[in-house]
Specification:
Blueprint (H helix, E strand, L loop, with lengths): L19 H6 L19 E2 L18 E4 L6 H8 L5 E4 L3 H6 L9 E4 L7 H6 L4 H17 L1 H16 L4 E4 L6 H13 L3 H9 L1 H4 L1 H14 L2 H11 L3 H14 L3 H8 L4 H11 L2
Parallel strand pairs: 2-5, 3-4, 3-5
Antiparallel strand pairs: 1-2
Helix pairs in contact: 5-6, 5-11, 5-12, 6-14, 7-8, 7-14, 10-11
């Protein structure tokens, strides 16, 4: 994973980021998707939301791609996930993350581990001491989704699998918000969903994971101090500037998301076309 000092030459300076406050005030008030809410997989949802409407007036196809945080379901939630008929689960966590908390894979889905990001993310995050450092850390992670060739290779493998595997599929990382959030945003962009809707969907993590975030922050603040708790809140939440950093990196280096997919991720046009077919009703 890229650190603050290891950004490649293509990385944008912080001054190129969109203004977070402006983005937040421009977001539509979208309803929560009607995918079942799962207490034990708190950030589980359909990438298509309630059937997001594209710029061409079509609706994204629901029940095709799902996103989640780590799969450690209760028996009740596992039964719900298994009822969806998933054919594949893609775990994009690092080797360390996947070994520390193995997935419970729903039947009859195939499990595939496609690591995206390397290194000890947890240790790097816990070393942060200020809100500004935490925000920069998250922005840099999102830039690395575009700027780092090893990370791009992981996303390339994920998207090729999504395009060529039949049936409903699920992808996830640890919190279901950064690596997973970027993959979801790319799929929504490819479907033609407006950027403001994509951003609003991205920010739903703060709603879906609110209880988990609050509990974790309270525990860490009690063990350390309130300032550290707020640093952790920034790391566990999402912000418009995090996803904005990735999109700005795409526009800076590739011009469009489509060029990023074909040139940056080296996806053949027929794979991109297969994804488009799956994504839109």
């Amino acid at each position: 994973m890229l650190s603050d000092t290891a950004l490649p030459d293509t990385a944008l300076p912080d001054t190129a980021l969109p203004d977070t406050a402006l983005l937040d005030t421009a977001l539509p008030d979208i309803p929560l998707p009607d995918t079942p809410r799962l207490a034990s997989i708190h950030n589980f949802r359909d990438v298509a939301g309630p059937g997001y409407v594209t710029t061409s007036g079509q609706a994204m196809s629901r029940g095709v791609f799902y996103r989640a945080n780590v799969l450690t379901p209760s028996p009740e939630d596992l039964a719900i996930v298994e009822s969806l008929g998933l054919t594949a689960v893609y775990d994009v966590r690092s080797e360390t993350e996947a070994n520390e908390t193995p997935d419970t894979v729903p039947t009859p889905a195939m499990y595939a581990h496609i690591p995206i990001l390397s290194g000890n993310i947890h240790a790097e995050a816990m070393a942060l001491r200020t809100a500004d450092a935490a925000t920069a850390f998250m922005q840099n992670i999102n830039r690395s989704f575009v700027a780092d060739p090893v990370t791009r290779s992981g996303f390339s493998q994920l998207f090729a699998a999504l395009a060529t595997t039949a049936g409903p599929q699920l992808f996830h990382c640890t919190a279901g918000k950064d690596r997973t959030g970027w993959a979801a945003a790319l799929l929504q962009t490819l479907a033609g969903v407006p950027r403001e809707t994509i951003m609003a969907d991205y920010l739903l993590t703060n709603t879906y994971s609110a209880e988990y975030i609050d509990a974790t922050v309270a525990t860490i603040a009690a063990a350390t101090d309130a300032d550290k708790g707020e640093v952790i809140r920034l790391l566990l939440s999402v912000d418009a500037s995090y996803l904005g950093a990735a999109f700005e990196q795409v526009e800076h280096h590739y011009g469009t998301v489509e060029n990023y997919l074909t040139t940056g991720l080296d996806l053949a046009p027929e794979l991109v076309g297969a994804l488009e077919t799956k994504l839109v009703s």
